[in-house]
Amino acid sequence: MIMDKVKRTILMVPALAILAAAVRPMHIQGDEALESRVYLRTYIEATSAEYNICPELVEAIIEAESNWNPKAVNGQCIGLMQINSYWHQGRMKRLGVTDLTEPRQNILVGIDYLSQLFSENEDIYLVLMKYNMRQDTAYQKWGAGDYSNYAVSVAARSSELEREHGK
User: What CATH number does residue 74 fall under?
Assistant: First the structure.
């Protein structure tokens, strides 16, 4: 009986650590507000529903692009979904987005872009390659059946998250 309690405790520690990491507050640049991943996941679910985009796909992209770091910068790409303001100026203006380091604004632009990509082609691998690389390169690779590691890993992670969320 004592061994059962010890085993349950040992098994619960990693689960609690994962839960703690999931709700850990993040420092948001700008207004210095604290928002948790749980709050952002709620925002992702609501916004994804409006655009008919799988929220787990959005989460998988965020993990791959920034590892949930709203201040991530890679060249001209900024924030959670690594949005390049140069390529998305019109989209940002249309959506009223002014600060790509603000997580909700960044996610909104990313989801809107995903919606556009899916309206052009429903193949998840092509959509993910177009999201991650030059459009012409994505079409060439996709046409040759050569899916990028990025596309394969993000699609797999999205499926994993769907299973975790009971979908």
Answer: 1.10.530.10
At residue 129's C-alpha, the angle toward residues 125 and 130, to 5°, is: 115
Q: Is the pLDDT of residue 144 over 70?
A: yes
Strand pairing category for 77-78 and 25-27: unpaired
pTM, two decimals, is 0.77
Whether 37 is in a domain gets the answer no
H/E run at residue 157: helix 149-164
Number of domains in the chain: 1
Per-residue confidence at 139, pLDDT binned at 50, 70, 90? confident
Q: How many Å apart are CA 69 and CA 106, to the nearest integer?
A: 12
Angle between helices 103-120 and 55-66 (to 10 degrees): 120
The answer to whether 82 and 72 have CB atoms below 8 angstroms apart is yes
pLDDT of residue 143 exceeding 50, the answer is: yes
**Does residue 2 or residue 143 have the better pLDDT?**
143
What residues are annotated to the active site? 65
Encoded tokens for 121: 């082609």
Quote the tokens at residue 164: 């975790």
